[in-house]
Fold:
Amino acid sequence: MRVLEDSCSNVRWSAAEALGAISDEQAVEPLVRLLNNQREETIIRLVAADSLGRIGAPQAEAALEAVILQVSSTRFTRPRATR
Structure:
């Protein structure tokens, strides 16, 4: 789904949102790639996560769980700044 790779962030955002609204299971893999793209804008990654949640396929749920675990471990294991 090349539209999720469009150079315009508004297009990527709209596409990710629409794919979740129609619960297209074929969109799971491209949405997972979008979610895992560290260079992508945070809001677009959040829309991808929301869409994966709406689709609810096992692969979508696994991707969301992986991101939650990654964020949790990063948040709680990051070294504290020295004072």
